[in-house]
Design a protein that fits this description.
The structure is a homotetramer.
Chain A lengths: L2 H16 L18 H20 L8 H7 L23 H21 L6 H27 L23 E4 L2 E5 L15 E5 L2 E4 L5 H9 L11 H10 L7 E4 L2 E6 L2 E4 L11 H10 L7 H7 L9 E7 L25 E5 L15 E3 L8 E2 L5
Parallel strand pairs in A: 8-11
Antiparallel strand pairs in A: 1-4, 2-3, 5-6, 6-7, 8-9, 9-10
Helix pairs in contact in A: 1-4, 1-5, 2-3, 2-4, 2-5
Chain lengths: ~375, ~375, ~375, ~375
């Protein structure tokens, strides 16, 4: 596949994800972590315009200088006019305007990629692809948040195949102690945070081949897990009490039965289904209640060939930190990962809404420990 | 004009105000005081459905029980499912859905009013008209806020006649001391807070026949009015410092020139124009700087025959309190005014975006002293 | 009594109020509205030093220039070193240091008053006396807050005569309609906010000769008064829910019995006692539940000769606003009252912890409507 | 030395640290992280009473059941009376009361230790010693905070030898790659978080033998380090802007010269002195500006024999996480360390206010990355 074909495929997939939306769904931002879908549409476009077209396409005319301001997530270098631009407050540019912008950039990129199919810009082009794939997953999770927190519980799509999946029974495999190679190696794309490959010494451990199911987690709820501080980190316990947390996100107890919002609308919780939308604090408390623990990201990577992964982002015990020898790229691209390396937890694997081909065994996802709107789950270790 | 004709005229005017909007403009809520336009469209409809159709139209079928929850501003009686419904987070019901709801209710109301043109429900029907007229003004001010706080500064309409108006020179008239009748009298509609008519004794005072102009207020800014605590209430001074207030809302200093956002877009401040969008704190500080004061609402009402009013809501010194003999209506309608009678200031007059025929010399508008998104101005007294 | 004798008496009384305190009690500030007792001791001293000694006593040497910073409540004119000085965070100056400062100023004042017993400084001297008397009452209420919010519930003094008082049965007197003179007249001292005397027209009304008792208020609690939004202002209802208010301040329900903290320690609530420590919101809700209302400050002043007052500060319906003709004094003294004339409610009367001779029928006390740590009660009107 | 002699020595040292304090200094709590000295005095006493005397000394009579409530830092198990007990709001128990409690427990402990000098309680006794030593360091840092944030800048003690120390020139030593043993081994005391000893593979690295000096850090300030987002974590940059951070804690720029508060009072910053009181964010930004990085806690431990440590707690890049095989103790003692293992950074070494003999090469101290009131410094790695 040429870069141009790949570009077109990825760009099309983003629009396909948004196809079931109403105009209004593109606009709102119920919480800070969720971005309005139209912002994702514009921001992924801005990425190609800013790092390729404006710098490398001769004669390219910027679509609208104000859009740099509206669709930039790298705020630190922005100066001048100081107006608060909480994304969810912006009714303009309209969805139609944003798609016009997208079309304009796509046409320029088509012309650009026809002539630059290879060479020294390939890295930044591929980065743009991966960047857009990350936002495709965020589109799914942000749309789910927007519709799932609406009191009408509208479905995203009735014929979606993006359902909650089923899991299998827990079974533990043992991994021997020794030195393991961690981090990306190979010719393909990876993010800077997966480099550089290095050795980590691991003690012998056991790790489950299955993710925790809804049924198993319900036992924790019924056993009073949310009411017993002993299973929780001090900050997790504060989080439970402050937010009165009693179940995973999207779960509702109606008339004694558990329902959860899915992309198909409100559904009874499937007991055999894989647990979804829990925070690191909940993952850790569940493991403590089971007398076990979460794996480190190194244990996960060393054991991953032994199990299937890809239903949920799996919380690990590891903090998100630079690998030995990690170096930021110069310039704005260098802000991509490094500056977030404090107070976040690593999640490994991929989820059922991760873009196809986007996952890697060395992939390091990261979120703050209280967040739950991603497709997150639990794999136990001991 | 029959009640039905009046109904149709008022309902049409609401839709006319929204005609220039894009779908996205209907959805957002940049601050708590501003409601999304689609909420105004739905809420005014809900009022007629709830207080007339559901209670008094035989065989009326509620459009959607969930809408009672979404469009109700009288939250106290709502129970059951507790989901946070910040209005600006709701992408559903869509704008099209809301207009369908509106059409459904309008059809039922047409049938209803054809048969109930008079009688004991007239009061609540007329209250519904006035309620909708209040929301028409809020539509103007909320739309202005939504567009005027967008970094693209889009115009509401280029051919709007809703421009900032000009004022005349200050000139003071004297009013003699004595007992004055205050409050509504007559056969027409008024709100409960304008009743009951009573006597107030006033000392002799002088009051300006003109509103303060932009030019006059600029003198206050240039004289350092925002930097000298002596002119301000203690809470006003806190407000200035906390929010770094340096000018009226919508004013921007670009390259040494003052611009302000208007419904036609960003415009240079017209020095002869009438000052707009200031808080009670600013109105009071300006008056103190001039060595004068704001009138009380009683002084205003007694003097109003001597000047033109209707460009701005004019801040008075008076707190919003019940008149002697004030009594709340029973039931939900009784929540209309009385429960807000603490910590707010009375504004008198009307503004250029007040609905025609909505103003009255006895009308008591009220807002918290820091708010500025309404069309507010200053009339001096001494 | 000479000014000097009066000075000595008032200064001594302040120290007498503090006599039962432990050193530690002088230091803490549990909430922003409460000041540490040592601050009151220093601030009342600072007042005499700043407005009399430093300006008018030849050769007076300021005790410590830093104290101007520490004991000044008129922060607006303070510049230079910006260090946060939350009063309750300051362990220094020590209590002993503050009393040394007090002694130093008292000696200078003694010398000063021996020579300036009359003349043009008398007004500011008398203002200093009244200022200190206001802080004497605050000492009682702040000490009560400090000790009453300690989990050990220590008594202020076992032999205090500052007990909760008893009230009599409600009985209403009628006051005829007509013009009434409001505001201070006479030769003695009054605050600027009681001037200038003016006429107010009042409708006929009835007002109770007694304050509401604990027993009567318990009926309101038992009838679910704190759970029914209909009796409350919208902001009052928010306050109830946000703070989970279920009873007056200092009340505790232990094993089904109501106790309240008093200056003698924790005591069973005396049913015949006069209700104490309620907010304006509670006062207003109680009155609404009784089908009555609170009096305005003008109704109160006109009727006050008909009843005894002095147990509680009585919430009125009136907002704290300038009287017609009110003018601020020039300079820092002008900050005394005027700048607080927004968002506060007038309380009339005096309380059992008000300094003797400090009360006046024209006295206008004022607090924000949610505050309850003063000795506040309810007198009904209709 | 017997356990009893050791007990007496440690308990005496705590009181010696407090000897220069005024009563008032014992009471205040300027920020949540700082505890009032009297709380430390009481809490360390409560530890021995709760875990030894009440459980293991036959016939021991609890001094005051309410003290369990006041001096307990393990709030999760506390129920019943819910009164907010912000430590700095409590004037009672008085300092004298707390010392009486301390004396009472010391006498019981003397009797207890005379009979239990060895055996199965030794572990908990030794834990109590180490617990008290931790609070001794906190006493120094909390007292410094209390006095250093007072606008009078009172000295703790003029003859203190607890001065800011000097550092030497940076010089880097190399450590070879390979497997290193990490964690405590031996017979003496260590905390549970230092266990269990395990192997970590390290790449070759260089680490400085000296801590960063004030002079070196001033270069960073002068080079605009606090104004260039590129050196900072995203959360660090937010912290800088939100708090307007421009220098280490306790530094003040007066008339163009840098001063800092020390336990001897306000002093000019000694350019050769060792940098003190910086957050992890500042440490990391400084390292980035130098083109270097902070060591991991494993690199630190492996290299520590090559340099002197003990002036500052040294921020490492490592997050505070459980070692492989970490297990919490059962019961309340198990809350000691494990529940804090999220969102905190490890500091290694010890500081000049750490209790003698308290430091260890395997010691893992931990704080949130924004905190600076401990004696913290920077050691560079590359």
């Amino acid at each position: 596949m040429t870069l141009l074909e790949k570009y077109k495929g990825i760009r099309q997939r983003t629009e396909d994800i948004c196809a079931p939306l109403q105009t209004e769904d593109y606009v709102v931002q119920p919480v800070a972590d969720v971005s309005p879908p139209k912002w994702h549409i514009g921001h992924t476009t801005w990425f190609f315009e800013t790092f390729l077209l404006k710098e490398h396409l001769k004669g390219y005319k910027e679509y609208n200088p104000d859009y740099n301001y509206v669709f930039n997530s790298y705020y630190e270098t922005v100066g001048a006019r100081v107006i608060r631009t909480d994304r969810g407050n912006l009714s303009r540019p309209t969805v139609k305007d944003v798609y016009s912008y997208r079309l304009y950039v796509d046409e320029a990129m088509t012309s650009f990629l026809s002539n630059h199919a290879s060479g020294d810009l390939k890295d930044i082009i591929i980065l743009g692809f991966n960047h857009e794939e990350q936002h495709q997953e965020l589109l799914y999770t942000d749309i789910k948040y927007i519709l799932g927190h609406n009191p009408l519980f509208p479905a995203y799509s009735s014929d979606t195949n993006v359902l909650e999946k089923q899991t299998s029974k827990n079974a533990f495999v043992s991994v021997e102690n020794g030195l393991y190679e961690i981090g990306y190696t190979g010719e393909g794309f990876c993010f800077d945070n997966e480099l550089s490959r290095h050795q980590v010494y691991l003690r012998e451990y056991k790790i489950s081949t299955a993710l925790v199911s809804n049924e198993e987690y319900l036992e924790f709820i019924l056993a009073g897990g949310y009411k017993d501080f002993r299973y929780w980190h001090a900050e997790g316990w504060d989080w439970v009490k402050t937010n009165n947390v009693q179940s995973p996100m999207y779960w509702h107890l109606f008339d004694g039965h558990w329902y959860h919002y899915t992309l198909k609308g409100l559904q009874p919780v499937d007991e055999k289904g894989t647990l979804n939308h829990i925070s690191f604090y909940e993952a850790s408390a569940y493991a403590a209640w089971k007398g076990m623990r979460l794996p480190t990201e190194f244990e996960w990577e060393a054991a991953a060939p032994h199990f299937n992964w890809g239903q949920r982002w799996e919380w690990t015990e590891s903090a998100y930190l630079p690998y030995p020898g990690f170096a930021k790229a110069p310039g704005a691209i260098g802000e991509y990962n490094g500056k977030f390396m404090v107070n976040q937890k690593v999640l490994r694997g991929a989820s059922q809404v991760t873009s196809p081909q986007h996952g890697r065994i060395t992939y390091r996802n990261f979120f703050h420990p209280h967040l739950r709107w991603q497709y997150t789950g639990i794999r136990l270790a001991q």
